Amino acid sequence: MKPIRKKPFIVYWNNIPAPYMVERFNALSERGNLDFEAWFNERRESDRSWEVDETKWKFSHRYLPVLRFAGKSLRFPLPILEKKRPDVLVSLYSEPVFLIGWVVACLRGMRTAFWVERTFDTWISRRSWKEFIKRYIFGRVDNIITVSRDGHDYAMRYNISTDKILFAPHTIDVTHFQRVCSAALTHRIKIRGELGLKGVTFIYVGRLWWGKGIRFLLNAFHDIQRCIPEEVSLLLVGDGEEENSLKKKCRNEGIRNVVFAGFKQKSELPKYYAVSDVFVFPSLGDPYGLVVDEAMGCSLPVVTTSAVGEIRDRVEDGVNGYIVPPEDSTALFQAMKRLAGDRELRKRMGQISADKIKGHTPERWAEDFERSVNRILSAS
After folding, report:
1. Residue-wise pLDDT tens digits, 137-172
2. pTM score
3. Domain range list for the chain
């Protein structure tokens, strides 16, 4: 009788249980090849409105305990000190608690990997001491797991050899977005009427925050309203600190037909893509932007800035959308105007979007992640 091979104990340590991570962890657990556990610092963050429902989780998980010291609350990865130690610890690295955990993991002889995505100067303050720390830890971690070319090139800036960089591309629940979107299309006219949408509708999904470039989008949309005779609408789905100031901008500058729909959970979101015609992502520096993939899964053409990680893997300029420079309302306007005036172009580009994102599922991420873990273990 052959001995039962022990499954490797793998921990993925994230800041919060974002829905797209829960989908991937569920898929990983269903494969059953790893003894997998997720750690989270917090259940929610103040600027995120995602629903958290642990009853739907299929994987083991923990929230890190809070330690009280000198009147302050501190997070510390106590599970890392337990007798059963992970064979591989995959974590973020941008907060002190992750670095403390990484040091302890190294001292205990664990294999370690950082999840890394490209960051942009518009979003990140690159202080010299932070850059020094990043070079130090990247030079000593066993591996980096990233998304694609942008993540690879970004990691290479910080003293890690290319043979230590592994890939697990981002994914979404494509089936969910296609199914709910398809169902909503049968009620498109009714839903649009309820929302007050008129004519060709541009949609943005995400935080209402300066780093997303929404003011440039409003400027571009206003120019479209002034140059074409047909009614057009802009649907903003999300919440954030700039919501009131953006509404004020619309009132003061006479920008009409802008609908603030508020934050929507994953279950509702495809309905809003379904009643729209073009997805616009004016970000000034997004590490990735999964909403682009969601919109593609709902067969929308995409207008995006170039300041988005791995964007050229998903959007081919002139094929399934347009890529424009960040902070450029004129370039946004020109791309949006082109799509506003050509229904067949929108339809053709939208179909290409859907074809390109097909297969980018949580199950695929689980396979890629397992492959990366096996590479890490085989090098030990």
Report:
1. 999 999 999 999 999 999 999 989 999 999 999 999
2. 0.95
3. 9-171+361-378, 174-357
